[in-house]
Amino acid sequence: MRITFTAMGAENLSTEAISAVLKQAGHKINLAFDPSLFNDANYFTKPFLHKVFDDRKGLINKIISQEPDILAISVFTDNFKWAVSVAEDVKQILDIPVIFGGIYPTAVPEYVISQECVDIVCVGEGEYPMLELVNSLTNGSIDYSIKNLWFKRNGELIKNSPRPLIDIEELPILDKELFENEVEIDRMYMTMTTKGCPYHCSYCSQNFMNKFNNRVEGRPKEKEYAYRDYRRRSVSNVMNELITMKNKYNYREVGFYDSVLVVNKKWTLDLLGRYKEEINVPFRAIAHPLTINEEVAIALKEAGCFRVQLGIQSFNETTRKEILLRPEKNKSIMRCFDILDHVDVSYSCDHMFGLPGESEKEQIMAARAYSQLKNRVRITCFWTAFFPKTDLVDKAKTLDLIDDEKIKNINEAHESAYIAGQHGSVSREGMIKQFKIYEILFRAMPILPGSFVNYLLDHNLQKLIRFLPKKITLFVVDFIVMIVKKDLSGFQYMFFYFKHMRRRFKLMVGLNR
């Protein structure tokens, strides 16, 4: 059976995980990749440049040439419209089933499967449902009883129940071959050691998944109160993957993209100890302020961690506790920073603009806190965006900040992105202009002395930033920060663009001959 996956803008670990299971069973897997230059839902959104570098026709032709028996797309909120447009274009030429899976279809399956171009939706984990689907197609007919899958059949909608959560220890190593011609795996090796998240922050899509997973078949009733799901591979399992792939790709960096890597102290120290001895290349990881202590920080430093990403979002404790479901105190957050500064581990801080109830006062509070930090490599700025079925949507509705029409727009993916130069669910023009000042200030802060930042704030001089051209200023600031702070992930992103721009130039020159 021939399966084509399509993806946009970046390597997709979920697609690699499903592909590995299918390949293990002997199926033929192909990828049709859209680099989506200057419209990648991550950072760059420049419509004019996107028109220049877009190759939608080439993407569709590649899918057609692969002669797939089924087209599969991993869908999240920000790429849903792109996924629908690709499926529609393919359906005009090929009469094949199209399956959408991922966190967005899991949250709003009724809406997703209502799209004419979508035949099947996977809700929840997709590795084994996809395998069972492909196996049934191989045998000549679709099995419409596969758990986790919703089907259309002769005008009927078939909704199968979720299955028990899988043991991730049993999964094969990610299929990196699928993306090796599209991203530089030898430069940055991406992986995950977990599924789920031990926290349930209201704004994150994982907030919805925690609730969804509590309803799956076989879930112990006594665990329902925990409101979350978190599964972690053994250290030996993770190391087997890293060693195998280092031998294959000789990668120079590793990115652990777990929602939170640093959770269990013993597991973390065991992993970092073996990583230092057997891998010994720079890596980045995501942590929670409450999971960092001096012993863990020292282990991170010694193992080669070049950045710890920390979600802070706000320095208003009431906002964090009541709106974001983040009960940690400011003193705990600052203690985390003090430890990382003392041990000399670099870190980035995630910050959100436009949170319900917040104003300029909270941004000044955050600016003064960030100005004290020594090893901040980047203040990563996001704009509050509502994701379907999350607690943040419920809280905003309770506060009369959004209505049913707004929720409908959220569920149908009509909100703008929370990054890529867009403003998420923040719509008030005055608020956007005000917060843009602090976005520029925060993104420049890693290269500004703390005393200078506080001088600006003391004399209200940060308001002068509003006279700067926003887009070019942000680009220049980010580029300088990347160079000065030797931001490896920034370089990785830049190389991705160079690679695909060069490829597109060659294609355009060839067509013009």
Helix-strand blueprint:
Blueprint: E1 2-8, H1 13-24, E2 28-34, H2 47-53, H3 56-65, E3 70-74, H4 80-91, E4 98-101, H5 103-107, H6 109-113, E5 120-122, H7 127-138, E6 149-153, E7 156-159, E8 189-191, E9 194-197, H8 205-213, E10 229-232, H9 235-249, E11 254-256, H10 265-278, E12 283-287, H11 294-303, E13 305-313, H12 317-323, H13 330-343, E14 347-353, H14 360-371, E15 376-383, H15 391-398, H16 404-411, H17 429-444, H18 450-458, H19 470-484, H20 488-512
Parallel strand pairs: 1-2, 1-3, 3-4, 4-5, 8-11, 11-12, 12-13, 13-14, 14-15
Antiparallel strand pairs: 5-6, 6-7, 9-10
**Average predicted local confidence, pLDDT:** 91
Estimated radius of gyration: 23 Å
Number of strand elements = 15
Structural class: alpha/beta
Low-confidence spans: 221-227
The total count of helices amounts to 20
For the biggest sheet, the summary is: 7 strands, mixed
Shape: globular
Ends distance? 38 Å
Strand order of the largest sheet: 2-1-3-4-5-6-7
| Helix content estimate | 40-55%
Share of β-strand residues:
15-25%
